[in-house]
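Researcher: We plan to redesign the surface later, but first we want a full-length starting point. Tokens attached.
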């Protein structure tokens, strides 16, 4: 409880300042963290080496690494701003949505939708902008260590018609939403356990990815809709929906799920090759099958 009161005090002091100062503060913290977090800097380098080989200059690697930390800081700041916004329409003020027709078409056909995304760009804007302006979204969240802060984050999302459930036991909630023709959102980042993930090819190397989007879409005849948010230099955000991925329904369910899961990985890889700056590269994406990659030199 003391930690939560400290958090609320920090929040109060933070919002005494205009947004440009709040943003500058979080960017400064991110830059400081990047400078001293040698372990995650190593992870970033190893991940970029897998994805791009030796094609990136030292300067470019540093640029992407710093951007990774800054992007995370902006997502954290966004949670606070979502909770403190006096007008929920503010979140969509500088947001443009492309490919919206894919989502509206599925809704018009009364088909449930599984939005798949990644920790790329300001994903906190991505979710609430869509849920507050188009359709409510049900999603999964990892329970935090502090129940008060966890509830704070949940309530902040709920203001924008985003309903979140803890990971444990979440399947029944996701299934219920899809049965009712609703929309759910799932992240497809890699490095799941062998129990929770399936083996796919990602940047030419095997990795463990969640089969949940494909499994649920196949079971409930849902459309898988890849989506990503792209930060712009002028401060705008472009949320983009991509061509839907349909899950086949053959006699081999396992193969159907694997094929659709690999299609999601291929989509993400293609987008990251275009603009790698805003992805969460400091995560150990290939750890489960290739632990030797992330042995930090002493």
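Model: Full-length starting sequence:
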């Amino acid at each position: 409880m003391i930690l939560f009161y400290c958090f609320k005090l920090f929040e109060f002091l933070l919002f005494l300042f205009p947004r440009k100062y709040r943003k500058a503060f979080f960017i400064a913290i991110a830059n400081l963290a990047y400078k001293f977090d040698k372990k995650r800097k190593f992870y970033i380098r190893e991940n970029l080496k897998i994805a791009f080989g030796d094609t990136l200059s030292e300067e470019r690697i540093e640029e992407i690494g710093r951007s990774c930390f800054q992007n995370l800081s902006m997502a954290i700041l966004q949670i606070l701003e979502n909770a403190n916004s006096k007008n929920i329409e503010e979140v969509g003020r500088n947001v443009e949505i492309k490919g919206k027709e894919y989502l509206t078409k599925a809704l018009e056909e009364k088909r449930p939708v599984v939005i798949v995304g990644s920790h790329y760009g300001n994903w906190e804007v991505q979710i609430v902008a869509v849920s507050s302006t188009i359709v409510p979204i049900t999603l999964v969240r990892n329970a935090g260590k502090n129940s008060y802060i966890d509830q704070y984050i949940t309530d902040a999302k709920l203001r924008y018609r985003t309903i979140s459930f803890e990971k444990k036991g979440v399947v029944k909630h996701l299934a219920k939403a899809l049965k009712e023709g609703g929309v759910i959102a799932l992240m497809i980042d890699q490095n799941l356990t062998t129990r929770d993930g399936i083996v796919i090819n990602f940047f030419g190397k095997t990795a463990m990815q969640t089969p949940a989007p494909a499994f649920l879409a196949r079971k409930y005849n849902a459309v898988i809709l890849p989506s990503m948010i792209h930060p712009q230099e002028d401060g705008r955000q472009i949320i983009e929906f991509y061509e839907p991925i349909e899950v086949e329904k053959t006699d081999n369910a396992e193969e159907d799920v694997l094929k659709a899961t690999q299609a999601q990985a291929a989509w993400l890889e293609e987008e990251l090759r275009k603009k790698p700056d805003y992805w969460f590269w400091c995560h150990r994406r290939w750890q489960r099958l290739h632990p030797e990659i992330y042995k930090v030199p002493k």
